[in-house]
Write a structure and sequence with these properties.
The chain is an alpha+beta fold. It is about 40% helix and about 20% strand. It has a five-stranded parallel beta sheet, sandwiched between helices. Strands 20-19-18-21-24 form a five-stranded antiparallel beta sheet. The radius of gyration is 30 Å and the shape is flat. About 0% of the residues have low confidence. The structure holds zinc ion (ZN). Zinc ion binds next to loops.
Amino acid sequence: MTRKRRILVTSALPYANGPIHLGYVLEAVQTDIWARFQRLRGHECHYVCADDTHGTPIMLKAQAEGIGAEQLIERVHAEHRRDLAGMLIGLDNFGSTHSPENQALCDRTYRALRAAGHIAKRRIKQAFDLQANMFLPDRYVKGSCPNCGAADQYGDSCEVCGATYTPADLKDPISVVSGTPPVERESDHYFFRLSSFEESLKSWVGGGAVQRSVAHKLQEWFTQGLKDWDISRDAPYFGFEIADAPGKYFYVWFDAPIGYLASFAQLCARTPLLFDDFFAADSRAELHHFIGKDILYFHALFWPAVLQGAGMRRPSGVHAHGFLTINGQKMSKSRGTFITAQRYLQHFPPEYLRYYFAAKLGPGIDDMDLNLEDFAARLNADIVGKLVNIASRCAGFIAKSAAGRLAAALPEPKLYADFAAAGDALAAAYEGRDYAGAMREIMALADRANQYIDEHKPWLLAKQAGRAAEVQGICTQGLNLFRALMIYLKPVLPAMAGKAERFFEEAQEWTWDDAAKPLIAAPIRAYEPLALRLDPAAVRRLIEPEAAGAAAPAPAPASAAALSIDEFARIDLRVARIVAAELVAGADKLLKLRVDLGEIGERDVFAGIRAAYDPQSLVGRLTVVVANLAPRKMRFGVSQGMVLAAGPGGREVFLLSADAGAAPGMRIK
Ligand SMILES: [Zn+2]
């Protein structure tokens, strides 16, 4: 056994502004596997997290619901807690950034930074909403892009031409909160002097705390020059008021990472753990953060600098991962692919997704795709077809021909020794967050175990008189190979491993080293199936729109007059493939679609779906078009048809589609 490490790990904080979706589950699973692996290896590893609860969006959302912000974040916290538990995320503490512990730590951190000369007070200009009586964050001012003129753009950047600017540059700016034009006002803000940490950050990065690809990205930021960081916001704001600056609040991004410390402080309060053992400047414990690659600036620049500036230790590792796509596309509410943890858990066990994520998670920051067909196929092939198959083929014979007892020796100790020897390489893969490599190696071993059983055919020997001892030996060998693999998979499949521990009548929970020695001359229990086959058709239910099934379809409005079948037949509805989609300059609700109608040819159609769909995401998909609508001349061109969609409008518009197999031009009857 190597030296016992003391480790604290965190996942980034889920924002208390909505449900936990599978993108966040990916991160929690990645962290949880690593934490469980460390514990299985015998290290002391604590895993804490907290809800990120502050900021303007939460404040406005609570106002819109007519409830207090505290009430909103409490409700969301209960949902997040339920979903994380449902996914078997083994958190030691799940706190909230809106806690007294966090307020005290924010205050302490801020005072320490100020005392050390790291805080500067500066006067800034910012957009102000006279009607709502509040300063407006950049995303709360909209207007026309100063560069290309595109309407309805945010105050920080243009989604059409990509230009970046400040809200003061926008043409015809409007406050999103009240709909009135904002004015510019001055206000005193507090800045963290990030620029003075450049050299120490460079040496921290050079020390291997981040992945190599991340170090390259950070180098770009160093080259651009580090800017000081505005850590204050004006009232009204939902957050912590700065102690000696009335009306000024800590910016949510200042108090959020301190929330890791606060959550750990809550754990310390109910255990013998000491906070300073982990956070004093000279702490020898390890601190690891798992985050999405979109929040690197905060975690790999601001955060280590804030910790150091306040006299605390810096992270041992900041580990970034890529984004999750569903069937090759960004998760999207309008496409029904914004899959929440709850929706997933209504259909499938958590460990299926945990395994799928593990099988695809490498140590880098590449995006990961959850392809639903591949999900079902891989689960059925690996977990059901390979892993569980080993146990289900052997267990019955031990019960029937060996009175539920494993043999006193393995017939092929060399084969078992190979499985035991694989432990070191597997541990190195887990440690380096190369879970995909570990899963590949484990499944290759599962293949060898199945091959062994295929060669020795216990089901044939069991029918022959006088060969019971041989059958017992083969099945003892098979079950021990299965046992070693389950030990290696315990970080990924904690519930299945727990069942397997009970099946093997283990006196204690497994540790990693238990795989080194086989279990012989011991009783085992009756075998119960550990995993069931996944129905590929059922997987498709994950991406139906949330609304489907939640309520019966609304009855047709009484005013809709009955239509004769002949009248209906006059409408020429066709399957169409969208071959191109583009924005329309000067029309902020429209997309121009080029649709292929097969034998009819290609047509241009304008559709009011811009708020709901990203043009690129539409290219290639099938939809339904009214092909015999009289052409309509519009300001931007002629529309030669109409695509069919449902929903009240805005972002809530859902394009109809045709199942795979339908071809462009097919008549809909
Ligand atoms: Zn623009």
